[in-house]
Structure formats: structure tokens, C-alpha cells
Write a structure and sequence with these properties.
Blueprint lengths: L22 E8 L14 H16 L4 E6 L7 H10 L4 E5 L4 E4 L6 E7 L4 E6 L2 E6 L43 H26 L1
Parallel strand pairs: 1-2, 1-7, 2-3
Antiparallel strand pairs: 4-5, 5-6
Helix pairs in contact: 1-2
Length: 205
């Protein structure tokens, strides 16, 4: 949507009717950390949503209003500084809640979010002009597409298992990871592969 070459020309518009969306709700963990869907944390969602609130502010200035609905914000390392910066923005608010349902206001067409604020312990029905879901990360390649039999965990990621032999998973094939963790994972897998190669070479030598 923010792509200048995209369908909206880089403008934040409501897909349903093309109207400007200045009041935007960001729902965290939409399907993640949920026993009925994806039990794991996808790790990149918090940072992505925080960045998106800045795009909203850049486009609409003081007219912009962003509300982040969250279970908890998992901001670590440098992300925490960025999180504190967003928290200090008077036009961005944070509501600790898992949204229960979304309905539509028939008069305005606005989505209305319903749930319970777990900090104030009161029910809310908050209208917004647009809702952005931070959906969970899940493997895109099913096990059946692998050329060999691979052991996967419950979430569908490649398991660190002896049964996988010389098949080493790296990055997001092993878990839902952000960039830093993906690089660390790839480095670790490369080192494990080198160890195996050296061991085999030593045995054959």
C-alpha cells in the first residue's frame, strides 16, 4: 500500500471504498501465540507494526491516529529504544488487549473493534477507519516438497534432529526469526556443516 508504484500510489487508503485512512488500528499476534492456530511468536511483528505507525504519522501528520492492540510488545535490544520513541508520540496509543471480534458500522463502513482492556479491565467498542493485522509467520514449503524425508516440529519448521542427518536448516526454515537471529542461525548451521565435512574427511583420510 505504501509503495509509490502500488495500486494506491503510496497513499494509505481503505481498500473497501478508497477513502483516506487516518485512524488506523494495528492488531498484534493475529493468529500467533494461539493454541488454535500458531503457538509460536513470529518475532518480527512488533517491530513491523511500530514502523507502520511512523508511516501513518509521516503521511497524515497530526491528523493521524494509531492504536496498537497487543498482548505484550516484545521489543528487545535496539528495538526497545524505538518502542519508547513511539510510546512518546501523543498520536499513537497502546491498548493491552486481545481483540475478541470486529464488526462493521453500517453508517460509516468503519470497522469496530470489541474486546477488554486488560489494564483497565473495561470493555471497549472502538471504531477505526482501517485495521492492520500482524499475522503470524509460518513455513511456506510443506514437508512433501522436500526431496528427502525431513523431521519437522509441530509448527512445521525443520527440527534440529539427528534423524535429519546432514540436512541443516538455517534462518526461517528452522523457526520464526528476525534478521539478526536468522543470520545467527545460518552461521550456526554453516559451522555444523563444516564440522560434519571435516569429520568425514578426517575419517576417510
Amino acid at each position: 500500500m505504501l509503495d509509490p508504484q502500488g495500486p494506491t500510489g503510496g497513499k494509505i487508503l481503505r481498500p473497501s471504498d478508497g477513502k483516506e485512512a487516518k485512524d488506523v488500528a494495528f492488531i498484534q499476534c493475529a493468529g500467533s501465540r494461539d493454541k488454535n492456530h500458531l503457538a509460536h511468536c513470529s518475532r518480527i511483528c512488533c517491530m513491523a507494526s511500530l514502523k507502520q505507525t511512523t508511516y501513518l504519522r509521516e503521511q497524515y501528520g497530526d491528523e493521524a491516529k494509531g492504536t496498537v492492540y497487543y498482548i505484550d510488545i516484545r521489543a528487545i535490544d535496539r528495538i526497545d529504544d524505538f518502542y519508547q520513541k513511539i510510546q512518546a508520540d501523543p498520536n499513537i496509543t497502546f491498548t493491552k488487549s486481545k481483540v475478541a471480534s470486529i464488526t462493521e458500522d453500517r453508517e460509516t463502513g468503519n470497522p469496530v473493534l470489541h474486546g477488554v482492556d486488560t489494564e483497565g479491565y473495561h470493555r471497549y467498542s472502538n471504531p477505526h477507519e482501517l485495521v492492520v493485522l500482524a499475522i503470524g509467520m509460518e513455513p511456506s514449503v510443506p514437508a512433501s516438497d522436500f526431496p528427502i524425508e525431513v523431521v519437522l516440529n509441530e509448527e512445521g519448521f525443520v527440527e534440529l534432529d539427528e534423524a535429519n542427518g546432514a540436512f541443516f536448516a538455517a534462518g526461517c526454515s528452522s523457526d520464526a526469526l528476525d534478521v539478526n537471529r536468522a543470520v545467527q542461525s545460518a552461521t550456526a548451521s554453516a559451522l555444523r556443516a563444516i564440522q560434519v565435512v571435516n569429520k568425514v574427511a578426517g575419517a576417510e583420510g
